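Dear colleagues,

As part of the handover before I leave the project, I'm documenting each prediction I ran so the next person doesn't have to rerun anything. This entry is a single chain, and its sequence is reproduced below.
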Amino acid sequence: MHFALPPRKTSNPPPYARASRTSSLRRRQLQFGAIIGCALLVLIFLISHLFGRGAERIPPGTPEVVIMTLMDEENMSKEYINKIKENRKDYAARHGYTTFFPSVSDYNIGSSPRSWALIPAVRHALTDYPHTPFIFALSPHALIMNPSLNLQTHLLSPKKLEYLMLRDKPVVPPDSVIKTFSHLHGDRIDLILTQDAEGLSQGSFFIRKGDWAEFFLDTWFDPLYRSYNFQKAEGHALEHIVQWHPTILTKLALVPQRVINSYGVEIASRGGKEVMYKDGDLVVRLVGCEGDPNRSCEKEFDVFYNQWKRTVGKEV
């Protein structure tokens, strides 16, 4: 009887064995490549967020400053409003800025004094112009008198702002124990204010866009403060939060009053002749005219309006 012999062993492995080892090696290579790719993506993400925050893409034509003036149509004539707009638009056009003219009636402030509408109006401007670095909030009872002054070189550049900042100054004169910080740098400032002999002034100020600005405006407009019935409404609320909220004080710069807030009338209790408008000043403000029955904002405005028209070379 004959039995079949077992097949000879061969030194060549079956095809499937080689394919199995190759497949396993390729899987390991792909896994390693995926890990390296993920690591690179994480690294790029971290670098872009750590070092690329200042490289925000700003659309072409974005203005450096929005000049915002809140109008009260119920208490201001159409002619008066048109003159105010003309003044702001002329200045903005000369320097590549833009203007924003919200109305008091645009905002629900309940039973609070109408002046409280200033705060949501500033927030509105920040929302409508999200890429613009600064909002210049200017009272309607004021004129921009020097059309040649550029706001960046006059005030807003960090170097210029550092030069102008009033350091270690009582926030509310004459002897508030809360004082401006002495170590702040111009590029860290988000709120620029002035003060007169009575207190802080919200009639002409600058605020820089960003999360801090939103926090500040929300704090200032808190319903609790509006319920306090401060004598000077949002003005006293501003003084309160600046003095008692270190987060706000650390972003505040006070500058000399005539830099952005010269007065058009002499009021002894608010600084007298020292803070009166002089030729060459950026702004003249008719402080207190709206609350004094013996004064007329429009008549006082016209005096400076005619002077401004001559300055810009237009017919009166």
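Residues 6 and 12 are 17 Å apart (CA to CA). DSSP finds ten helices and nine strands in the chain.

All the best with the project,
I.
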